[in-house]
Amino acid sequence: MPDPPHRRRAHARSSDLERYAGLFAERTRVMRSSAMRDLMAVTARPDVISLAGGLPDTSTFPPQTFAAQMTRIAQESAAEALQYGPTEGFRETVDCIVEVMGAEGMLPDPEDVIVTTGGQQAIDLICKALVDPGDAVICEAPTYPGAIPVFCSYQADTIQIECDGEGMRIEELEATLERLDAEGRKPKLIYTVPSFQNPAGVTMSLERRRRLVELARSRELLVVEDSPYGLLRFGGEALPPLYQLDGGDFVIYIGTFSKILSPGIRLGWAVTPPPVMEKVVLGKQASDLCTSTLTQYFVREYFRDGNWREYVESLAVIYRERRDAMLEALAKHFPAQASWTEPEGGLFIWATLPPYIDTSDLLAKALRENVAFVPGQAAYVDGRGRNSMRLNFSAGSADEIREGIRRIGKVVGEQVELYSALTGEATEVAAQPEGAPADEAENVLPFRKAEGE
Ligand SMILES: Cc1ncc(COP(=O)(O)O)c(C=O)c1O
């Protein structure tokens, strides 16, 4: 009996690689995979504690609320909810977006808003509208690992500016702009995640926010402020978004419902000046015609019915407790030479290990212990970040987080001991003896401390 067709295809796959190679577009040579997406297959295993993803805890959303809203949509607007919608999104969705932005003090013109398929598509559409191959794009070091594949697929020359405990170092940005000036170049955009950054968890200080906006305005440069976490603050003082400081002339704003409601609904947005919006809309028409009508109806119902701010506040309470559990566990299980950030919101902590530890190698060992994290290199375009890692504290329970950090601490400890045995250098494996009270403060050294800025 002949093989069924799908089995024949599977056999042919590996030998076909060369045959297809000549067909690919030039840009595919520089396309990069997203580290988190790659890890998802492994971390989906039930025995793995994943501190790798950026998943909000959707189990906190009441199923009965979800059911009631979807039922109402089915009963009252089935035909419309199942239909195509406008490329820019429904006005009712935009009204919800204006309400969310208003909660952080922003007042966008609804005409400047486009509803997108997640914040991820907004990054893609903005790059599609602005970036030609070889164009300079500036972002933070480290930057959101999911933005790197976008910059790569538009063949950007991605330049990363160091972050410290106060966010992007503006002095280094100014020096980079001067250097580009001297080369007759101007960056197409400066991409930043100023609040509870993914991956580092740091927040740009007010002074730096002001300086960045001043720079953008005086040099007529576009800043892309990507802010999925601004409302997930659980400590410190709220800071004005760049968009608010600028008024929307040179700051493009990207938001999302992913972290305040659900990533599964794939609803995000961009707010841009009108000339940019015109190009972004054309790009979106070509890309997917419109964002899901059904999930836009869901958001509309949710905002009408539920108290969305209360839900966001309840998430912040849960995430604060989990962040605290992670900080405590880090102090207990990580070596004295490690340091980590102490975020006041968002979903991530960034840990830096001794320089002789490569976290990509460490991940293989960690996976054998059934625990995962994102190796720091995923947040850089140039191989930096080898001894750092991104740790997520929103997805698992406090107990899972403690156990996950214990397991990572164990493999880190083995590396430290090995290094010590090979070099004869004395090393202290655990940050503190078992049972000692956690004192995080000593290890909370986000990269370098802010210097002179
Ligand atoms: C900084 C940043 N931008 C964009 C996204 C993409 O989010 P989504 O497409 O789900 O809105 C994420 C997701 O984690 C993120 O952290």
Question: Your description of this structure?
Answer:
The chain is an alpha/beta fold and 453 residues long. The chain folds into 2 domains: 29-59 and 311-421, Alpha-Beta Complex (Aspartate Aminotransferase, domain 1), CATH 3.90.1150; 83-304, Type I PLP-dependent aspartate aminotransferase-like (Major domain) (Aspartate Aminotransferase, domain 2, 3-Layer(aba) Sandwich), CATH 3.40.640. It contains 14 helices and 14 strands. It has helices at residues 5-21, 35-43, 63-81, 91-102, 118-130, 148-153, 170-182, 206-219, 242-246, 274-288, 293-305, 308-333, 359-368, 398-423, and strands spanning 49-50, 113-116, 136-141, 157-164, 167-168, 189-192, 223-226, 251-256, 268-271, 339-340, 348-352, 371-372, 374-375, 388-392. The strands form 3 sheets. An 8-stranded mixed sheet has the order 2-9-8-7-6-3-4-5, sandwiched between helices. A 4-stranded antiparallel sheet has the order 10-11-14-13. Helix 3 packs across helix 11 (293-305) and helix 5 crosses helix 10 (274-288). Bound molecules: pyridoxal-5'-phosphate. Pyridoxal-5'-phosphate is lined by residues 54, 118-120, 144, 146, 193, 198, 226, 228, 256, 258, 263, 268.
